[in-house]
């Protein structure tokens, strides 16, 4: 029998308002189209393997930003991570009907970066090279107006000429430790503005803080979340600073040998791109392996009253109109 005696459940975990909106909108789109034509997405709607497998099974096609794979006049979803203006232009040129399920907090970043450039500022952007959110934001302004920094070492090397003013913005799902360091570095520059409000979204911030709350009481942490999910990997990285931590998509990835050597208390959390049912499956795995296991729910570090952001209703109504259905 499993020797783990207690499971502590993170107070803030699981899907955020943006992910719930993106997934609900995608499911609505697939239901409206109902197999009458292909529904494309430029990228994984959210970085979650099991949920994407379900959506692909329901007819969603990921064209991985390769427009050659998309016929003119198609129905195209833009993922929760957002896309560059160029992607919208191509969709328009191909006469595609787009449903934009970008999280509103990512859209905010696009707006800030565009405004900075319009005001004559350079942008120093902390983000992960190649991550879809970063690619989308970077596409908003000319390359020579934005400097991408991926860590504190790169931030230290940034040179902003004395004649130029810059502002620091970031990807929404970075580590709060890391962004604090980068902010400190930039505060030391007289010509770089560091906004008081950081760009880490509430879901990332709260889930990382909730892991911090778990750590004094556990010997091990499991993060339910995909390897591609940056916010999930940041939770794993956070936990790994104190205890052993793994990320999984499903409980069948758990290796019982992880819990030898006196592991008695396990912390359980999930990334912002993970629906609660996947978390529950993992909890059930532990209950099955040890029916006497104690389960302790940790308090929320911060209440999250908004469970779902506003759906892109205008886009959805246009899709309904395509089939002569009332909005
Ligand atoms: S993790 Fe944050 S930025 Fe990403 S979808 Fe959720 S709320 Fe939006």
TrEMBL record:
<feature type="binding site">
    <location>
        <position position="16"/>
    </location>
    <ligand>
        <name>[4Fe-4S] cluster</name>
    </ligand>
</feature>
<feature type="binding site">
    <location>
        <position position="231"/>
    </location>
    <ligand>
        <name>dimethylallyl diphosphate</name>
    </ligand>
</feature>
<comment type="similarity">
    <text>Belongs to the IspH family.</text>
</comment>
<feature type="binding site">
    <location>
        <position position="47"/>
    </location>
    <ligand>
        <name>(2E)-4-hydroxy-3-methylbut-2-enyl diphosphate</name>
    </ligand>
</feature>
<dbReference type="GO" id="GO:0016114">
    <property type="term" value="P:terpenoid biosynthetic process"/>
</dbReference>
<dbReference type="GO" id="GO:0051539">
    <property type="term" value="F:4 iron, 4 sulfur cluster binding"/>
</dbReference>
<feature type="binding site">
    <location>
        <position position="81"/>
    </location>
    <ligand>
        <name>(2E)-4-hydroxy-3-methylbut-2-enyl diphosphate</name>
    </ligand>
</feature>
<feature type="binding site">
    <location>
        <position position="81"/>
    </location>
    <ligand>
        <name>dimethylallyl diphosphate</name>
    </ligand>
</feature>
<dbReference type="GO" id="GO:0051745">
    <property type="term" value="F:4-hydroxy-3-methylbut-2-enyl diphosphate reductase activity"/>
</dbReference>
<feature type="binding site">
    <location>
        <position position="103"/>
    </location>
    <ligand>
        <name>[4Fe-4S] cluster</name>
    </ligand>
</feature>
<comment type="function">
    <text>Catalyzes the conversion of 1-hydroxy-2-methyl-2-(E)-butenyl 4-diphosphate (HMBPP) into a mixture of isopentenyl diphosphate (IPP) and dimethylallyl diphosphate (DMAPP). Acts in the terminal step of the DOXP/MEP pathway for isoprenoid precursor biosynthesis.</text>
</comment>
<keyword id="KW-0414">Isoprene biosynthesis</keyword>
<feature type="binding site">
    <location>
        <position position="131"/>
    </location>
    <ligand>
        <name>isopentenyl diphosphate</name>
    </ligand>
</feature>
<feature type="binding site">
    <location>
        <position position="231"/>
    </location>
    <ligand>
        <name>(2E)-4-hydroxy-3-methylbut-2-enyl diphosphate</name>
    </ligand>
</feature>
<comment type="pathway">
    <text>Isoprenoid biosynthesis; isopentenyl diphosphate biosynthesis via DXP pathway; isopentenyl diphosphate from 1-deoxy-D-xylulose 5-phosphate: step 6/6.</text>
</comment>
<keyword id="KW-0004">4Fe-4S</keyword>
<feature type="binding site">
    <location>
        <position position="229"/>
    </location>
    <ligand>
        <name>dimethylallyl diphosphate</name>
    </ligand>
</feature>
<dbReference type="InterPro" id="IPR003451">
    <property type="entry name" value="LytB/IspH"/>
</dbReference>
<feature type="binding site">
    <location>
        <position position="229"/>
    </location>
    <ligand>
        <name>(2E)-4-hydroxy-3-methylbut-2-enyl diphosphate</name>
    </ligand>
</feature>
<feature type="binding site">
    <location>
        <position position="81"/>
    </location>
    <ligand>
        <name>isopentenyl diphosphate</name>
    </ligand>
</feature>
<feature type="binding site">
    <location>
        <position position="47"/>
    </location>
    <ligand>
        <name>isopentenyl diphosphate</name>
    </ligand>
</feature>
<feature type="active site" description="Proton donor">
    <location>
        <position position="133"/>
    </location>
</feature>
<dbReference type="GO" id="GO:0019288">
    <property type="term" value="P:isopentenyl diphosphate biosynthetic process, methylerythritol 4-phosphate pathway"/>
</dbReference>
<feature type="binding site">
    <location>
        <position position="131"/>
    </location>
    <ligand>
        <name>dimethylallyl diphosphate</name>
    </ligand>
</feature>
<feature type="binding site">
    <location>
        <position position="172"/>
    </location>
    <ligand>
        <name>(2E)-4-hydroxy-3-methylbut-2-enyl diphosphate</name>
    </ligand>
</feature>
<protein>
    <recommendedName>
        <fullName>4-hydroxy-3-methylbut-2-enyl diphosphate reductase</fullName>
        <ecNumber>1.17.7.4</ecNumber>
    </recommendedName>
</protein>
<feature type="binding site">
    <location>
        <position position="273"/>
    </location>
    <ligand>
        <name>dimethylallyl diphosphate</name>
    </ligand>
</feature>
<feature type="binding site">
    <location>
        <position position="131"/>
    </location>
    <ligand>
        <name>(2E)-4-hydroxy-3-methylbut-2-enyl diphosphate</name>
    </ligand>
</feature>
<keyword id="KW-0560">Oxidoreductase</keyword>
<feature type="binding site">
    <location>
        <position position="47"/>
    </location>
    <ligand>
        <name>dimethylallyl diphosphate</name>
    </ligand>
</feature>
<dbReference type="GO" id="GO:0046872">
    <property type="term" value="F:metal ion binding"/>
</dbReference>
<dbReference type="Pfam" id="PF02401">
    <property type="entry name" value="LYTB"/>
</dbReference>
<comment type="pathway">
    <text>Isoprenoid biosynthesis; dimethylallyl diphosphate biosynthesis; dimethylallyl diphosphate from (2E)-4-hydroxy-3-methylbutenyl diphosphate: step 1/1.</text>
</comment>
<dbReference type="GO" id="GO:0050992">
    <property type="term" value="P:dimethylallyl diphosphate biosynthetic process"/>
</dbReference>
<feature type="binding site">
    <location>
        <position position="273"/>
    </location>
    <ligand>
        <name>(2E)-4-hydroxy-3-methylbut-2-enyl diphosphate</name>
    </ligand>
</feature>
<keyword id="KW-0408">Iron</keyword>
<keyword id="KW-0479">Metal-binding</keyword>
<feature type="binding site">
    <location>
        <position position="273"/>
    </location>
    <ligand>
        <name>isopentenyl diphosphate</name>
    </ligand>
</feature>
<feature type="binding site">
    <location>
        <position position="229"/>
    </location>
    <ligand>
        <name>isopentenyl diphosphate</name>
    </ligand>
</feature>
<feature type="binding site">
    <location>
        <position position="231"/>
    </location>
    <ligand>
        <name>isopentenyl diphosphate</name>
    </ligand>
</feature>
<feature type="binding site">
    <location>
        <position position="201"/>
    </location>
    <ligand>
        <name>[4Fe-4S] cluster</name>
    </ligand>
</feature>
<keyword id="KW-0411">Iron-sulfur</keyword>
């Amino acid at each position: 029998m499993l020797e783990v005696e207690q499971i502590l459940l993170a107070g803030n975990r699981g899907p955020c308002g943006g992910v719930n909106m993106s997934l609900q909108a995608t499911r609505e789109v697939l239901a409206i189209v109902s197999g009458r034509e292909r529904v494309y997405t430029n990228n994984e709607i959210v970085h979650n393997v099991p949920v994407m497998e379900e959506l692909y099974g329901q007819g969603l096609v990921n064209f991985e930003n390769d427009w050659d794979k998309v016929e003119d006049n198609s129905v195209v979803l833009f993922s929760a991570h957002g896309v560059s203006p160029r992607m919208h232009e191509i969709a328009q040129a191909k006469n595609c009907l787009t449903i934009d399920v970008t999280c509103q907090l990512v859209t905010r970043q696009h707006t800030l970066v565009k405004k900075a450039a319009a005001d004559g500022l350079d942008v120093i952007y902390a983000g992960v090279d190649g991550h879809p959110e970063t690619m989308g934001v970077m596409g908003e302004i000319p390359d020579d107006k934005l400097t991408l920094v991926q860590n504190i070492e790169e931030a230290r090397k940034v040179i902003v000429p004395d004649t130029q003013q810059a502002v620091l913005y970031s990807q929404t799902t970075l580590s709060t430790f890391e962004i604090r360091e980068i902010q400190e570095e930039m505060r030391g520059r007289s010509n770089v503005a560091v906004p008081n409000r950081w760009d880490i979204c509430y879901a990332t911030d709260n889930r990382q803080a909730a892991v911090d709350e778990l750590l004094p009481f556990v010997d091990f942490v499991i993060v339910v979340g995909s390897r591609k999910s940056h916010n999930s990997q940041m939770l794993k990285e956070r936990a790994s600073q104190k205890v052993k931590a793994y990320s999984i998509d499903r409980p069948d990835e758990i290796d019982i040998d992880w819990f030898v050597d006196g592991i008695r208390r396990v912390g359980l959390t999930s990334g912002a791109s993970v629906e609660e049912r996947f978390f529950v499956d993992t909890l059930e795995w532990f209950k099955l392996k040890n029916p006497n296991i104690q389960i302790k729910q940790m308090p929320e570090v911060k209440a999250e009253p908004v469970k779902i952001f506003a759906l892109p209703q205008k886009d959805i109504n246009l899709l309904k109109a395509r089939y002569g259905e009332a909005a």
